[in-house]
Amino acid sequence: MAVYRARETERADAAFRDPYARALAGERGERIAISMPFFEEHAWAAVARTQLFDRFVKRLVQHGVDLIVNLAAGLDTRPYRMKLPAALRWVEVDLPEILDYKEGVLADAQPTCALERVRLDLSNADARRGLFERLGGSAERAAVLTEGLLIYLMRDEAASLAYDLARQRSFEYWVIDIVSPGLMEMLRERSGDRMRDAGAPFLFAPPEGAAFFTPLGWMPAEVKSILKTAGKLGRLPFALRMLSMLPESSGPQGSRPWSGVVLLTRRN
């Protein structure tokens, strides 16, 4: 993803700019990207997803959020590249080796807000619940980001995470990305073997769409199509431009290859 953010940044008409992406990706990142032709062909999806998450972050901060919790933060650099209030608290959660690498690359960079990094394996349910309780008790209005995480979880794991987040009253918003069963099938056919070999198989594509999270404490407030967003940004190949203009619902997409970014609000 850092490679695709770097390439977008280098465009004259960039939808966003990430001056740190190229250094974070490095030569190894380029080699990985080139070795995965399906994702190279669909790099527009990564650009659109990034832009949508950026848009929601800006809106939520303007709406008065005082804490953002970025789960499985990876090589995300929003606390550095976005104009954020200095008083905003931003917490990144990921595995130690990932955060150690990022911290080393960004050693000379200064975040625009108050940044905390938490080294934690999110599959450790007890540890994550303890973290959520600490963070939830320290904020008035918080938003959670899980960009690129849910697709790697089993259905019961996604449900457990949703429930744990909903238990914190200050966690008012949750921004996620999800895929349809149709797109999941395509991903598995085109790149599933490689991802399984890497220990990260594609798993989560709820037939219910964003409604999967409703009984778990979260209501879909806004659903944005990644394809349509990429079309508006002018990033789609010619063969997909007409497809992006077709109407679509915000509900379950079934066998249609679809992905989107969703703003969820916690049910009271």
Structure description:
It contains eleven helices and seven strands. It is an alpha/beta fold and 268 residues long. The protein has one domain: Rossmann fold. It has a seven-stranded mixed β-sheet. The protein is globular, with a radius of gyration of 18 Å. The protein starts with a helix and ends with a strand.
Question: What brief labels describe this structure?
Answer:
268 residues, alpha/beta, Rossmann fold, 7-stranded mixed sheet, 7 strands
Count of DSSP-assigned helices: 11
Largest sheet: 7 strands, mixed
CATH topology-level name: Rossmann fold
Instruction: Give the uncertain stretches in residue-range form.
Output: none
End-to-end separation in angstroms reads: 35 Å
Q: What is the 3D shape? A: globular
Strand content: 15-25%
CATH architectural name = 3-Layer(aba) Sandwich
- Total number of distinct structural domains: 1
Total beta strands: 7
Going across the major beta sheet, what is the strand order?
Answer: 3-2-1-4-5-7-6
CATH class, named Alpha Beta
Query: What gyration radius follows from the Cα positions, in whole Å?
Result: 18 Å
Overall SS class: alpha/beta
> Which superfamily, in CATH terms, is the homologous superfamily?
Vaccinia Virus protein VP39
Compressed to H and E, one letter per element, the order equals: HHHHEHEHEHEHEHEHHE
Q: Please, what is the average pLDDT?
A: 94
Helix content: 40-55%
